[in-house]
Amino acid sequence: MIEIKNLSKTYADGTQALKDVSFTVEDGQFLVVIGLSGSGKSTLLRCINRLVEPTEGQIIWNGTDIAAAEIADLRKIRRSFGMIFQHFNLVKRSTVLTNVMAGRLGYVSTAKSIFHRFPKGDRDMAAAAIERLGLTDQTNKLARELSGGQQQRVGIARALMQEPQVILADEPVASLDPVLAHTILGYLEQLNQEDGMTVICSLHYLDLIQRYASHVIGLRDGRIVWQGDSAAIQTMTDKEFKDIYGEEAERVSAGRSATEADRG
Amino acid sequence: MAERTLQSRIEVKTKFSPPVAGVASFVLPGLGQMIVGQVYRGILLLLAFGSGLGIYVWRIAEIGRREVGFGAKFGKAIDLEPMFFILSLVVLVIVWLLIAYDAYRCVQQGKRGGSGVFLSILAMFFVLGWQISQIDVVRMVREAPDALPPLSKVLWPWKAAIEYDIEKELGDARILATEEGDIPVPNVPLADEPYLIATPTQGELSTQDPDTGELIPGTILTLVGGNFRPNIETAIWWKDPNGNEFQIRQEGQYVSAVTDDQGAFRIEVIMPYRLTPPSAVGPLYHDVFALQTREIGRPKASEALRLTVERMIETIFMGMMATFFGIILSIPVSFLAARNIMGGSRITMGIYFLTRTIMNIIRSIEPLIWALIAVVWVGLGPFAGIVALTIHSIAALTKLYSEAIEGIDPGPIEAVRATGANTLQTIMYGVIPQMISPFISFSIYRWDINVRMSTIIGLVGGGGIGFLLVQYIRLLDYRSAGIAVWFIAVTVAILDYVSAEIRARLI
C-alpha cells in the first residue's frame, strides 16, 4: 500500500507542480493518473521513487516514508519500483541485453557491474524477461535499431529485472500508435493481474482509461480534482472529464478521434 | 524570397517618370532605383559599380605609377595591356548604361527589373579579377613543355627508388701547372692495371681575360689510356691541388672517351679553368684521371626511398602523438565548453563562453601558423610539428567533444537511476555508452586529419615527410620528391579509407 500524504512539489524556478496531493494506492490496483500536460502527472510519478525530490509531504510505503529515506535506503526502495517512460529512455547505442541488464544494477556490486559482470542467475533472468516480452531475436541488437513498440518492450523487460512490486509508467503509450498502445498496456495488465504488481500509470485517452484502469485520479494544476474506481470510470460523464481537462476537453476529445482516424 | 517576388509584381507608385529615373541612374548609378523606392537595389548597384570603377582606376594607377597625371597613366596602361584596359572599360560602360536602363524599367514596368544588370556586374568583376590575379593562360600553354619533365619525374619516380653498388676503374696522371717545380715523370703503360698517360705533363690552365672576360684556353693534353674495360664510356675528371674533383667540360659538354675493343682510348683535352688562390706559392700539381663506373650486384633501396620510408613512419607517429595529447587535454576542457554542464550559474556560464571563445580563436589559426610558432619555441623537428598539431587538435576536439556532451539524452540517465543504480553505475550505464562512440569517432577523424597535416607541416620545419619533400623540391630532385609525394598520397588514401570505415561502423 502506498499512502501519499500532503505531497507538494515546487521547482527551483517557482513552478508549483503538485499542491497538497493526498491519496492511497492499495496493492494490486491499476491506478491511472489523468490530466493535461503540465498538470503534474510526471512530477507525481517521479516523486514516488524520488527521481524528483518532493518539497513537502510523505510517501508511506510498507510503513517507511520514501520522502524521508536516506540515499542508501533509497537505492533499495527504487529497485522495487520499476519505471517505464514515454520516450522509452533506453541507451540507444547499447544492446537490448545491456539495457535490460541495467535494470539489475540496484542488486549487484558496483565493481562487478562496471565490468558488465553479472551473476549467472541475473543473466538467466534477463533471458527470461527478454523472452517474455518476445524480444529474443533482438537480444544483441542495438536499442536504436528497434521499432518504438519493441523499444518500449525493452523498457518493460528492464523494469522486470528489478523484480518490482510497483510499476510506474509515465505515459507509456503516448509515443506509440493505438494498436501498439494496446499491446503495451496488455503487458502492464498482465503484470498487474498475473504477477500481482501495483501499476501507477499516466494516460491520455478515455477509451484506454476505461479499458485498463481499476482506479483513476484526475489531476489539474497540481491538485486532485477527480477520484474514482472502475465503475465510476465507465460512467464518467463529459462534465467530469471536462473538469479534469478544463476548457480544452472537447478539443482533446475531437483531436483524439481525429488522430485515431489518421493513424487507423 | 517568395514574398519579395510577390512584392515585385506590385506596381511601384512613384511621381517620377521612367526617363527621370533613368537619367538619375545615368548621373549616379543606382540613384534612379533609390528615388523610386528600390533603395536596397540602388545601394547594391551603386556599391558594385563604384567598386568596379575604383578597382579599374587602381589598376591604371598601379601600371602607370611612374607617369604623372591620369591621362599619361591611362595612356601607359592602354599601351602595355590594351586587351584588358579596353575590354574592362567597355564592360564598365555597359554596366553603367544597364543600371540606368534598369532604373527606367523599374518605373515603367512597375517591377524590379531583370537580373541582366547583375550578370553584367558579374562579368565586370570577372574581367577585373582576371587581370588582378595575373592569370596568364597563354604562358601556361606555351611553357607547358617545361613542366613536363619534372611532372613526369614526380608522377613516376621509381627510377630513383633503387640504386646499385658502383665498381670503378681508374687511371690517373699528374700535371704541373706552374713554371717552377719538377715536371712529373710521364706514366708508362702498365701490364694489367688501367693506366693513363698524359703528354705533356706540364702546362697552363685555362684563364679568363681580365678585360673582356673571355676564356683563354690552356694547354692541350693528349691522354692515352689502356687496360680499361672495352667499349665503355670513360669520363675524364680533374682534381685540383685542394683535392676538389670535377668532370671536365668543353663547350658545355662533359668530356668522355669510349674505349676500343682492347680497352684503350686516346683523347685530347684542354686544361680546364681553375682559379688558383693568390696565396698559393710553389709548384701546383693537378691530376687528370679517367674513370669508368659500372653498376654491380643486386638493386637495393636508394637513399631517397629509405629516407622517405623513415620520414613517413615519423609522420604517422607525429600525427598519432598529437592526436593522443589532443584527446587527453581536450577531454577536461570539453566539459568546460558544454552548455548543459556549465549552465548552472552565471560564473560557470562565464567560464563556458571564455573557453568557447579561446578555443574558437585557436581553431581558426591554421596548424601551419602554429608550427611556425612552435619551431621558434621548441626548435626544428618533429616535436615542433607535434606541438602545433596538438594545439590545433585540442581546440578542434574540444568543439566536437563538447557538442557530443551537449547531445547526451538525459532520459536514459534518469531510467538507470530509477533502477536503483548508484552514481558510478549511472555514469557507466547511462552516460558513457552515449558518449563513447562519438568520442572514438571524432578522435579517429582527428587522427586522420593530423597525419594529413603532419605531411605538410614539415614545409615550415615541423619535421616529418614534408621536411624531406621541401628539401628535394628545392634541390630540384623531382624523382626523390616524387617518391615522397607518392608515399604521402598512398598513406593519406589508406588512412582516409580506414578512418571512414571505422567511423561508419561506430555511428
Strand order of the largest sheet of chain A: 6-7-8-3-9-10
Q: What are the secondary-structure elements of chain B, in order, as H or E?
A: HHHHHHHHHEEEEEEEEEEEEHHHHHHHHH
Class per helix and strand makeup of chain B: alpha+beta
Q: Ranges of chain B with pLDDT <50 over ≥5 residues?
A: 1-12
Taken from the alpha-carbon principal axes, the silhouette of chain A is globular
Number of strands of chain B: 12
How do the helices and strands follow one another from N- to C-terminus of chain A?
A: EEEHEEHEHHHHEHEHEEHHH
According to CATH, the homologous superfamily of the largest domain in chain B is: MetI-like
| Unreliable parts of chain A | 249-264
CATH architecture of the largest domain in chain B: Orthogonal Bundle
Fraction in beta strands of chain A? 15-25%
Number of discrete domains of chain B:
3
Percent helix range of chain B = 55-70%
The oligomeric state of the chains shown is heterodimer
Main beta-sheet strand count, sense and barrel state of chain A: 6 strands, mixed
Which chain pair has the greatest contact? A-B, 35 and 21 residues
Radius of gyration of chain A, in Å, reads 19 Å
Could you explain the architecture of this structure?
The complex is a heterodimer of chains A (264) and B (507). Chain A has 264 residues and is an alpha/beta fold. In chain A, 39% of the residues lie in helices and 22% in strands. Chain A has eleven helices and ten strands. Chain A has helices spanning 41-48, 71-78, 96-101, 110-114, 120-132, 148-160, 178-193, 206-212, 230-234, 238-245, 249-263; strands at 2-10, 16-25, 30-34, 56-61, 64-65, 81-84, 166-169, 198-202, 215-220, 223-229. In chain A, the strands form two sheets. A six-stranded mixed beta sheet of chain A has the order 6-7-8-3-9-10, sandwiched between helices. In chain A, strands 2-1-4-5 form a four-stranded antiparallel beta sheet, with helices on one face. In chain A, helix 5 (120-132) runs antiparallel to helix 6 and helix 6 packs parallel to helix 7. The N and C termini of chain A lie far apart (39 Å). Mean pLDDT of chain A is 87; it is low at 249-264. Chain B is an alpha+beta fold and 507 residues long. Chain B folds into three domains: 2-135, no CATH class; 163-300, no CATH class; 303-506, MetI-like fold (Orthogonal Bundle). Chain B has helices at residues 2-9, 18-27, 31-35, 39-63, 70-80, 82-108, 116-132, 137-142, 144-155, 303-336, 339-342, 346-364, 367-378, 382-406, 410-418, 423-457, 465-474, 478-506, and strands at residues 162-176, 195-199, 207-208, 215-216, 220-226, 233-239, 245-247, 249-250, 253-254, 256-258, 265-270, 285-301. In chain B, the strands form four sheets. In chain B, strands 1, 6, 7, 10 and 12 form a five-stranded antiparallel beta sheet that branches. A three-stranded antiparallel beta sheet of chain B has the order 2-5-11, with no helix packed on it. Chain B has a two-stranded antiparallel ribbon with strand order 3-4. In chain B, a hairpin with a 2-residue loop joins strand 8 (249-250) and strand 9. Chain B starts with a helix and ends with a helix. Mean pLDDT of chain B is 87; it is low at 1-12. The chains are: A alpha/beta (264), B alpha+beta (507). The interface between A and B is medium-sized, with 35 and 21 residues.
